[in-house]
Amino acid sequence: MPKRVDHEHRRQQIAAAVRRIAADRGLEGVSLNEVATEAGISKGFVQHYFASRDDMLRFAVTTLRSGLEERIATPPGAEPRVRDLLVALLPLDEPGRDAALVANAFVVRALKDPEIAGHFRTGHGLLRDAVAALLTAAKEAGALSPTVDPTAEAGLLLALVTGLADAVLLGYQTGEEAVALIDLHLSRIST
After folding, report:
1. I want to staple 167 with a disulfide (CB 3.0 to 4.6 A). Which of 25, 116, 173, 184 is the partner?
2. Contact 18, 35 (CB under 8 A)
3. Where's the DNA-binding part (predicted)?
C-alpha cells in the first residue's frame, strides 16, 4: 500500500526550518539547500513543495501568525488584559527573541514584496483591533481615562512595543526596563 504523505505537515516542516534559519542568520541565510539541510530533507523535496525561494518565503510568513497567537493567548480561565498582551509581544525569553528576529527579517523583505507586506498589514490590523477591544472594555469598566480613544491608543501602544522590542533585541534596554515603560504608559491612561 502506498505511503500517505501529509503535504501540509511537510510544508509546515519546511516553514519551521525557514524560521529557524531566519532567527539565526536572517533571510539572507535562507536558500533551498540550507532549508533542506535544516529540515532534514532533500532539496528536491523542498522544490516539490515550493517552486522558488520567494514562494517558500511567502508561505513561511503566513505561519508567523499562529506562533504570535500562541504567545499572546490568555490562559484558560484568566481575564484578558492589555498589559499581558503587550508584554507577550516583547522578546523576553528565547522563543520571544527568535520570533522577534524572524519577524524583523520578514519586515525587511516586506519592504520589497507586496504579498509579504500584505500579511503584515493584515496581522497588524488584527492585533490593533484586539488591543483596541481590550482598551474599550477597560474604558467601559471605568479603568481608563474617559478621554482615551481606544483605537488611537492601540496604535500608540503597538508602536511603543515595537520600539521597545527592537531596543531589547539590540541590548540598549533590558526586558525589565521595557516592561516598566509599558507599565508607565498604561498608568498614564488609567484611572
Report:
1. 173
2. yes
3. 31-50
> Taking a C-beta distance cutoff of 8 angstroms, is the pair 148, 162 a contact?
no
Residue 110 lies in a domain: yes
Distance CA 120, CA 124 (A): 6
Q: What percent of the chain has pLDDT over 70?
A: 97
CA-CA-CA-CA torsion sign (66, 72, 76, 77): negative
State the residue for C-alpha cell 515595537. Answer: 162
Range(s) of the domain holding residue 19: 7-61
Within 10 angstroms of residue 110's Cβ, the number of other Cβ atoms is 18
Sequence-distant (6+) residues with CB within 8 A of 17 are 35, 36, 38, 39
How does DSSP assign 114-132, residue by residue?
HHHHHHHHHHHHHHHHHHH
Q: What is the CATH number of the domain that holds 27?
A: 1.10.10.60
Total length of the chain: 191
β-bridge partners, 144: 190
pLDDT tens digits, one per residue of 96-155: 999 999 999 999 999 999 999 999 999 999 999 999 999 999 999 999 999 999 999 999
Q: Is there a single domain that holds both residue 39 and residue 120?
A: no
